[in-house]
Amino acid sequence: MINFLTPSIAGLMMLFGAVLPAYIVYWLRNKRGRLVVPWFRSSMLCGMVWSISFGAIALVESPELRFVITNIYIIVVPLSAISWFVFCYEFTYDKKMPKGIFLLFVPVVLLFIFSWDNPYNLIYVVEDPYRTEEILIPANEGSIRPIINVGMGYLLVIMSAGMVLGEWISSPHKVKKIQASFILLSTVSLAVLGMIKVLNIVPPYFDPTPIGWTLSSLLFAISIKRYQFLRLSPAVSNQVMNEIQEIVILLNPHNEIVDLNRAAVDAFNIEVGMTESEFEKQNPEYKSVINGHSTTQIDVKMGDITRVFDKKSSVLEFYDGLEGKIIILRDITELNKKEQKLQEQNDRLDEFVDEVTHDLRGPLTVASGHLELAKMQEDTMEHLNRVQNAHQRIEQLIQDARTKAHDNQASNRSNSHSLKVLVQPGKVLTLLQYH
Predict the structure, then answer these.
(1) 123 and 105 share one domain
(2) Tens digits of per-residue pLDDT, 243-299?
(3) Number of Cβ atoms within 10 Å of the Cβ of 191
(4) Residues 154 and 63 grouped into a single domain
(5) What CATH number has the domain bearing residue 68?
(6) Can you give the residue range of the structural domain that contains 263?
(7) Angle formed at CA 86 by CA 104 and CA 236, multiple of 5 degrees
(8) With CB atoms counted within 10 Å of each terminal CB, which end of the chain scores lower, N or C?
């Protein structure tokens, strides 16, 4: 291994290790406003510069140029640890890191300032470090560089791993557990590879840590594509989701459940990470919830009560032009009962109209008959009296109809929708036309 790993090969390997982190930084350029993304991009950027700078240190021959590159390299190491720590914090707690985190940058800034003049050999333990022929300018006893790079760096890495491990243990969401395991794997790999370098297990011109950045880039890309890392809702969004009374289910382009609210958990045997087939297996009587028509009614048994839900689904835009689906089930049980009651009232109104129409038809027929007889006979008084009686009967029937209709409308005045249904202008006008 040592014979094969020459400074040139080691340098080229580390330069190549910057490709994937650079691609991730570019790939996420349009998602900078999302939680966790800026700090992950920052850590990837540090990993990219780490790879390039150490690769250049192994490749260049000029001591002066190597000194300049080394001064960049020694601050990228703690910057990457800080960025990774903040990234893990925002992932775990679903909120932005407090502004006090910027105090961590103070020792890094001092390290960079002192590295150029190296006062009292605080950074490098050799005189005139810009003239040394050593590939990696030594910084051991008496230097503050290991305290910042190794001490502070590993403290932040351990704290990062602890936060993510706690999230992996406590999170009820299957998808976030998977994402947490990816971040834990990345954190451990970075820590182990960095320790290999610290313990001088590899040649001084080779740093295996950039391999960890490459692995982190791959895992993060998988987490975005496969497990919708950037679709995780922050705490505020989760609270809003759980306050919604309707059942809300979000599916990714692969028909996997990526988010849901408490109402969905109460109604079905469901959890984040389920595929469509897994949901149907756990809820065979509710297959139409996820598949089927975008608009339908679904009966859901909740305890001893069966509730009726109206299903609406629409397209949900994901990354890279892919489309998922959002499903909303609205409880319309009470509305259905009201509609059924209104239908029964309308049926009674139809019966009432038919009854009144039938009652009116009799006196109208009598009146019409006597009018015809009056036209044909000289003595018309008797016939006209009967016509008058028939009209009075009609007037009484109309008055009774108005009273009954008024009582019926008054009993439903609290519901404006019912008034619209019960009035039925055409039929009421039909009654009044008889008068």
Answers:
(1) yes
(2) 677 888 888 888 888 778 888 888 888 887 788 888 888 888 887 888 766 677 788
(3) 19
(4) yes
(5) 1.20.1070.10
(6) 235-331
(7) 130
(8) N
pLDDT in tens, 381-392: 776 777 777 777
Yes or no: say if 332 and 310 are a contact pair by the CB < 8 Å rule: yes
d(CA 261, CA 280): 18
Give the count of beta carbons closer than 10 Å to the beta carbon of residue 10. 24
Query: Which residues are CB-contacts of 142 (< 8 A; sequence separation ≥ 6)?
Result: 121, 122, 125
Q: Which of 206, 231, 256 is the last residue of a domain?
A: 231
Mean local confidence (pLDDT), 70-82? 93
- Classify burial at 178, counting beta carbons within 10 Å of its beta carbon; exposed 0-12, middle 13-18, buried 19 or more: middle
Alpha carbon of 353 to those of 48, 69, 142, 405: distances in Å? 83, 96, 104, 10
pLDDT of 416 reads 41
Given this model, what pLDDT does residue 230 score?
55
Instruction: State whether 271 and 377 are in the same domain.
Output: no
Dist. CA 33–CA 179, nearest whole Å: 20
| Residues 88 and 190 placed together within one structural domain of the fold | yes
Length of the chain: 435
